[in-house]
Each structure stands twice: as structure tokens, then as C-alpha cells.
């Protein structure tokens, strides 16, 4: 799973609006990847159950997670939604672009948001980035015919902890490349890792 995780490229654009970008290649046809990302039954098998009026201008709600409006949908290449989470959500949008490449599909995800300063200084891009890494890992397993990991226990397994730690560090590298001070990055990576994979209680 760590090798699967490392297939992705990560980039951070750090301004008033923070933009996280993830790019990776899947060995699956573009139509298959598109359906996996937009069909409610398939989404539940690798990501989360979704409900709502699933059309452009309609709204969606991921169970226990974000919801929002479907802003653009151009099968099988572009999906753009607002991504609202929590009691007082600010600007947040997610865009997924697919393109046929090298016999498979290039998957590009861009999440742009205004992030509260205290959250950014505490966790950096990993707060959101690790979650997306885990989601895209799930998509890869699904496209390859594998089973969804148990989200309740994944962080307790040795492999799960390696995946989370690797993801957190990778987003730390993207944070550093975007110009953040090394000490701030190190603290954010440690906080993010502890959030997603807290030490088991003795």
C-alpha cells in the first residue's frame, strides 16, 4: 500500500486560498474511473455513501463528511463540487479531472479552500491531504478489484500506520517546497500523523 501511495505526485499552492493538488495514474479505462467517482453505488464501495440530487446545480452529502453543490459535470473528464464541512464552512471546492494516458487514466484532484489560520499553522496541508491520499488509495484498490479497508481499524495496523506516516511526510515535503519554514513543517507533520494515527492506548 505504501508503494501504491507513492505513485501520487503532490503539490501545494500556498496563498490566501490554499490549493492541494494530487496526480496519479490508474491502470483502468477512463470510463471506469469516471463511473467509480460518480456512481453512488460504486462511491460507497471505496469512499463513502452519498445522497442528494446528483446533477449539475443539485446538492450532495457524503455520509458523515462533506456536502455541497455540484458545480460542473462533464463526463468522463471533469467534476467540480463545493466541499462544505463543519458548522461554519468557508470557501472550499474540489475539482477532479480525468484524461486517458498510457493505456490507463491520469487522475488529477485539486482542492482549493480558505483555511482558518490556526488550523493551517497547526496541521498544514496534511490535515486534508492525508484524507485524500487515503481516499485515492481506496479508489486504486477498488479499481484493481480489491476490498475497501476498514476505516475504523486501519490506523491500528502496522501497514495502516506506515501509509499514514508516509502520506503525512509527503505532504510535509510539499509544504516545504511551497516555502514553509522547516520547523513549522516538522510540527505540522507530527500533529497530522498523531491525528490520523494516534498511538494505541496501553
Automatic annotation (TrEMBL):
Cross-referenced InterPro entries: ASHA1/2-like_C, START-like_dom_sf
Annotated organism of origin: Nonomuraea phyllanthi
Sequence similarity: Belongs to the AHA1 family.
Protein name stated in the entry: Polyketide cyclase
Residue span, Activator of Hsp90 ATPase homologue 1/2-like C-terminal domain: 27-135
Domain of life assignment: Bacteria
